[in-house]
From TrEMBL:
Protein's UniProt name: diguanylate cyclase
FHA domain mapped to chain residues: 60-109
Domain GGDEF: 178-309
Assigned GO CC terms: plasma membrane
EC number: 2.7.7.65
SMART domains cross-referenced by the UniProt entry: FHA (SM00240), GGDEF (SM00267)
Catalytic activity: 2 GTP = 3',3'-c-di-GMP + 2 diphosphate
Top-level taxon in the UniProt lineage: Bacteria
InterPro entries documented for this protein: Diguanylate_Cyclase (IPR050469), FHA_dom (IPR000253), GGDEF_dom (IPR000160), Nucleotide_cyclase (IPR029787), Rev_trsase/Diguanyl_cyclase (IPR043128), SMAD_FHA_dom_sf (IPR008984)
GO molecular function: diguanylate cyclase activity
Enzyme class label: transferase
Classification via Pfam families: FHA, GGDEF
Gene Ontology biological process terms, A to Z: cell adhesion involved in single-species biofilm formation; negative regulation of bacterial-type flagellum-dependent cell motility
Amino acid sequence: MTTVAHPASQTIPTGLDASEATLRQQPTVPTCESNNECCLVQIYPPDVIEGMLLLEQDEFQIGRSPDSDLPLFDNSVSRQHAMLIRGQDGYLIRDLGSTNGTLINETVIQDDRSLESGDTVRIGSFLFRFLSADSVETQYHETVYNALTRDALTGAMNKRFLTEAMDRELSRSSRAKLEMAVIMLDIDHFKSVNDTHGHLVGDDVLRTFGQRIQALCRADDMLARYGGEEFCLLLAATGRKDAMEIAERCRATIADTPFATSIGPLPITASFGVSVFDPEQIQSVKDLIGSADQQLYEAKRSGRNQVRG
């Protein structure tokens, strides 16, 4: 038997979607009553609406079949995809000959693999975090917080967190009379990648894109996934010259090396639009993003794989 630990019933605050509201309703961590009970928390797609999934049986099957212990109705998941098996030292996971494989910490498993607390488990386009019973208290809230603020696929912050951070940074920059830059980034021809190679390859591209841009970010820069294949980079205390140089470095790091995917290397490019906050003028977050979006449109219209600002 599989148990879902639900939070107490509460009224969903206005302005939150169902997944955020449900996560924020959970004031305490559901407890695992026996010493070797473990848990799965879905972290992607970000619709964590069932709380913590407690693993209570010795064998736990995941697949597209409705008879699975955890049915996932998506074509990226095989009917019998993977099985979690309880042993003396905890759970191990076995791929059941699935089409797209089972990945632990983004590495395809070939044989049975022991699970450690904090491991990510990818089943098709679904991503879970495995928590062992002795670490639930310390890791559950962190997992939930990350689900609310960070895009699990790319590692970037999510749109809601970005807009709140931009509001604060805009106020700070205005008071201190500092410039602030916003860069909108969009992967070129991403729809054709999904249409031609499938959504799992698209996920590979999004994940690598996030990793490459994050590697170029300074300590106080913020990268967020704005929606689909569009990202936003917030650069505090940065003027136009520096912002354009940063955007160009980002463009080059994307275009210069093909992306490793499950079907082999793919050449990928991206377009960039830059806007800069002028502390001598009255501008809103909406104004800055709108200006960067317009520059991004110009980059796309002019042939893509370029920076405009």
